[in-house]
Design a protein that fits this description.
This protein is an alpha+beta fold. The chain has 3 domains: 3-123, Beta Polymerase, domain 2; 127-230, Four Helix Bundle (Hemerythrin (Met), subunit A), CATH 1.20.120; 240-342. It is built from 16 helices and 6 strands. It has helices spanning 3-19, 32-35, 78-85, 93-96, 106-123, 127-147, 152-173, 185-189, 198-207, 211-230, 240-243, 246-255, 257-264, 267-287, 304-325, 335-342; strands at 24-30, 45-50, 60-64, 69-73, 75-77, 99-103. Strand 3 (60-64) and strand 4 form a beta hairpin. The chain is elongated, with a radius of gyration of 28 Å. The relative contact order is 0.07.
C-alpha cells in the first residue's frame, strides 16, 4: 500500500469503531495492490465484510482531485461472498486472494476458509459444468436480446455482456478464476483451453464499425463458445434407469401424429412434432452419453411423408440404445393385458 491507501484504510477502521462497532467482520485488500499490477493511478480494492446493515455507513465513493483518482469503498455481505463461493462467475479474487487488514475473531477466519474451500471444490470438480450450463442458457438469452436491439449502442451493450459471460464460462471450464484486472484479461487466458480464435473473435466485436459487422462478430463468438462449452469431460453412461420409458414417451407423444400430419398436408404440425422429438433427444443427451440425433437436418416442408420416415428411422435408431442396455419397450397386445400387468 502507498501512503494514500494506508490513510484510507485507517480512516475506514476509525469510522467503523466510531459509528458501527461490531458490524464489521473483516477488512482486506485485493486487486492490483496485491497482484503487483499497481501503477500511479491505481485505486484501492477493499473487501469490507459486514454482519449488520449499520456497516453500510462505511460505504463511500469519492474523487481525490490532487491525484485525479476515484475510489469506491463499498461493503459486502456474507450472502454475496457465498455467491462468489458458488462460482456463478469467474471474478472471485476478493474471496480467494484477499489479504487481511482486520479480522473480528477466529470464527470469521474459519467461515471465510470454508467459503474458499467451497469455491475450490466447485472449480476442481464437475460441479463447475453445472454452473457453465446456467451460463450457456444466459448466453442464449443475451443473443436473443441482441437480435432485437434497435441501435448499435444497445447492440454493443449486449455484446459486452456476452463477452463478460463468455469469459466466465471459459475460465470456469478450466477450473480457474480471474485474479487481475481487465487489462490483463488475455494474459490470464494464455495457456488455457479456450475456443478457437477466442481473442480474435472478441476483438472483432470490439472493433466492429457498424450494425452488420457487430452482428456477425457477435454470432461468431456466441457459436464458438457454445460449441466449446458443449464438451463435457465426463458424461454419465446411459443406464436402464436413465433411459427406461423414454422410447415409449416418444412413441406416445408424436409417433402417430407424423402420418396424421402427412394425411392432412399439415407442414406446421409435421415440423413441430419433429422438433419436439429433437428437443427430447437433446434433453436426454445433456445427461447421458447417447449418440447425437439430428432429425431436423433433412426436414422438408414439401414432402411430409419423408418427414414421417425420418421420425420412424430416428425412433428405431434410438430403440437400439434400449437394446444395448437390455431394455425391452413396454408393449402389450391390448388394454386387458396392460391392465393385468399394471395391477399385478
Amino acid at each position: 500500500m502507498n501512503a494514500i491507501h494506508k490513510k484510507i484504510v485507517d480512516a475506514v477502521m476509525e469510522k467503523a469503531r466510531k459509528e458501527c462497532s461490531g458490524a464489521v467482520d473483516f477488512v482486506g485488500i485485493y486487486g492490483s495492490v496485491c497482484t503487483g499490477d499497481v501503477h500511479e493511478r491505481s485505486d484501492l480494492d477493499l473487501l469490507i465484510l459486514i454482519n449488520d446493515p449499520k456497516g453500510y455507513a462505511l460505504s463511500k465513493a469519492f474523487i481525490l482531485d490532487d491525484v485525479g483518482i476515484g475510489y469506491d469503498i463499498y461493503c459486502a455481505t456474507w450472502e454475496s461472498l457465498t455467491d462468489d463461493a458458488n462460482c456463478g462467475h469467474a471474478h472471485i479474487s476478493r474471496l480467494m486472494d484477499c489479504e487481511a487488514v482486520y479480522v473480528r475473531d477466529e470464527s470469521v477466519t474459519e467461515r471465510l476458509e470454508s467459503l474458499k474451500n467451497q469455491a475450490r471444490e466447485v472449480l476442481g470438480s464437475d460441479k463447475r459444468f453445472e454452473v457453465i450450463a446456467g451460463i450457456r442458457e444466459e448466453l442464449c438469452k443475451i443473443y436473443g436480446r441482441a437480435f432485437v436491439a434497435e441501435t448499435i449502442g444497445q447492440l454493443r451493450g449486449w455484446a459486452a455482456y456476452m463477452i463478460t459471460r463468455s469469459l466466465d464460462a471459459v475460465m470456469l471450464w478450466n477450473g480457474v478464476y480471474f485474479k487481475r484486472g481487465v487489462k490483463k484479461t488475455f494474459e490470464e487466458l494464455e495457456g488455457l483451453d479456450v475456443p478457437d480464435d477466442f481473442e480474435t473473435n472478441v476483438m472483432k466485436i470490439v472493433q466492429a464499425k457498424n450494425f452488420i459487422e457487430l452482428g456477425i462478430a457477435l454470432g461468431t463468438l456466441f457459436k464458438s463458445v457454445m460449441r466449446f462449452t458443449e464438451r463435457r469431460m465426463r458424461k454419465d453412461a446411459p443406464t436402464q434407469e436413465s433411459l427406461a420409458g423414454t422410447y415409449e414417451e416418444m412413441f406416445s407423444n408424436w409417433r402417430n401424429k407424423m402420418p396424421e400430419a402427412t394425411e392432412r398436408g399439415d407442414a406446421f404440425a409435421s415440423f413441430m412434432n419433429l422438433a419436439s422429438l429433437q428437443y427430447m433427444f437433446e434433453e436426454i443427451r445433456a445427461e447421458s452419453a447417447i449418440p447425437k440425433f439430428s432429425v431436423l437436418e433433412e426436414f422438408d416442408a414439401t414432402d411430409l411423408a419423408k418427414n414421417a420416415n425420418i421420425f420412424d428411422e430416428a425412433l428405431e435408431d434410438y430403440r437400439q440404445e434400449y437394446v444395448k442396455l437390455g431394455i425391452e419397450p413396454a408393449r402389450y397386445a391390448g388394454v386387458d393385458e396392460f391392465v393385468k400387468a399394471y395391477l399385478k
